[in-house]
Amino acid sequence: MRKIFEGKTKDVYEVGDGSFQLVFKDDMTGADGVFDPGANTVGLTVEGAGLAGLKMSVYYFKLIEEKGYPTQFVSAQGNSMTVRPATSFGGGLEVICRYKAMGSFIRRYGDHIHEGSPLDAVVEMTLKDDERGDPLINEDALIAIGILKPGEYTELKTLTQDICKVIKTDLAGKGLELCDIKLEFGKTQDGKIMLIDEISGGNMRVMENGETILPLELSKRVCTV
């Protein structure tokens, strides 16, 4: 296999048959040893975090496909996941769905809303750009700079809210509350939008009785089989 990308929490390899492998690492986003799913730097390394992320991703990709939403997932083995090729939006577009005002939402809008206030599946989009701190971007700007075509913003927003509702409902059935989650989408070779990357404790904030559930514990609670 040939490594084509080295990320903060995963490395990407070209398999040679047209598919790719995502290799999950034990690195987690955050700062000063504290986990933060919204951070764009590696803040800590926890043994087993990579495998936990892989297990959760497989669990939710399968569940989401069962509900009729397309993903790039093919199979999993060891600490890696085989995926279909996907074309990202620009250099990478992250879509955040928020059910509670927390994290960067409060850092930006804390003068107008209290931490923990309920949000009705608010969708935000950010560009993957470490140097600029993953800036927020709106629909007009995404179209103006050529990352999205007219109509695709609405399609992404609707897909995000529908998929996140599936995840939120599943977590609620386990006694857990989804507060916010970050998804990523790409396009198939014939131009259809599909869910890509991962769906793990590393890119969502989940609580139980007011306490945040860390990714390793969350994986154990979700992936009971």
Overview of the structural elements:
The protein folds into 2 domains: 2-83, Phosphorylase Kinase, domain 1 (2-Layer Sandwich), CATH 3.30.200.20; 89-217, ATP-grasp fold, B domain (D-amino Acid Aminotransferase, Chain A, domain 1). Strands 9, 10, 11, 12, 13, 14 and 15 form a 7-stranded antiparallel β-sheet that branches. The protein has a 5-stranded antiparallel β-sheet with strand order 1-2-3-8-7. Strands 5-4-6 form a 3-stranded antiparallel β-sheet, with no helix packed on it. The model has no long low-confidence stretch (mean pLDDT 94). Helix 1 (49-66) packs across helix 5. It has 225 residues and is α+β, with helices and mostly antiparallel strands. The radius of gyration is 17 Å and the shape is globular. It is built from 5 helices and 15 strands. The two termini are 30 Å apart.
Provide a compact summary of the structure.
This protein has 225 residues and is an alpha+beta fold. It contains 5 helices and 15 strands. It has helices at residues 49-66, 104-109, 139-144, 152-172, 215-222; strands spanning 2-6, 10-14, 20-24, 27-31, 34-35, 42-45, 73-77, 80-83, 87-88, 93-100, 118-127, 177-187, 193-196, 204-208, 211-212.
